[in-house]
């Protein structure tokens, strides 16, 4: 699965303003609802927050990848946000987060689909150039262009 097949301009925010990770996740979920990928906001949001309670999804490099599988998800989807200001995500490396990927997977497709998406993103995040391209993207189209390299 290519990431560009599950992300849309509607699920990209280049200046998301949030005070904490819960507010960030909720705002990103709202974009997925508007895009049609999520059909039940509360159900999916609960799944993402429950996953977050099990362990931080702040993977380092200033990036977090919250995710959830839920009956509230209509189709696999990827959200992307650059934060207006970094927020504490209790990341593995202790640094605040400024880039967030949100992964949504329908419960019935929960097998390994989200793991494939996570692995694809994680592999690319190891490369500083990839992270810098995401940070410097000035439009949703540019974000999608960067993700096409995955």
UniProtKB/TrEMBL annotation:
GO MF annotation: an example: protein-N(PI)-phosphohistidine-sugar phosphotransferase activity
Query: Which organism is the protein's source?
Result: Calderihabitans maritimus
Q: Which UniProt keywords apply?
A: Phosphoprotein, Phosphotransferase system, Sugar transport, Transferase, Transport
Q: What is this protein called?
A: Putative PTS IIA-like nitrogen-regulatory protein PtsN
Q: Where in the cell is it found?
A: Cytoplasm
Any Pfam family the entry gives: PTS_EIIA_2
Fetch the InterPro entries from UniProt.
PTrfase/Anion_transptr (IPR016152), PTS_EIIA_type-2_dom (IPR002178), PTS_IIA_fruc (IPR004715), PTS_SugarTrans_NitroReg (IPR051541)
NCBIfam families referenced in this protein's UniProt entry, alphabetically: fruA (TIGR00848)
- Principal location listed in the UniProt entry: cytoplasm
Q: Provide the GO biological process annotations.
A: phosphoenolpyruvate-dependent sugar phosphotransferase system
GO CC annotations on file: cytoplasm; membrane
Query: Which residue numbers delimit the PTS EIIA type-2 domain?
Result: 5-150
């Amino acid at each position: 699965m290519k990431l560009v097949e599950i992300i849309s301009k509607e699920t990209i925010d280049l200046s998301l303003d949030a005070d904490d990770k819960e507010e960030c996740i909720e705002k990103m979920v709202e974009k997925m609802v508007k895009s049609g990928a999520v059909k039940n906001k509360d159900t999916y949001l609960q799944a993402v927050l429950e996953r977050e309670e099990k362990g931080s999804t702040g993977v380092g490099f200033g990036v977090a990848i919250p995710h959830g599988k839920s009956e509230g998800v209509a189709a696999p989807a990827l959200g992307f946000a650059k934060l207006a200001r970094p927020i504490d995500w209790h990341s593995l490396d202790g640094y605040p987060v400024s880039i967030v990927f949100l992964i949504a997977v329908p419960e019935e497709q929960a097998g390994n689909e989200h793991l494939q998406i996570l692995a694809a993103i994680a592999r690319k995040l190891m490369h500083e150039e990839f992270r810098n391209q995401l940070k410097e993207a000035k439009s949703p189209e540019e974000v999608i262009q960067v993700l096409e390299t995955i």
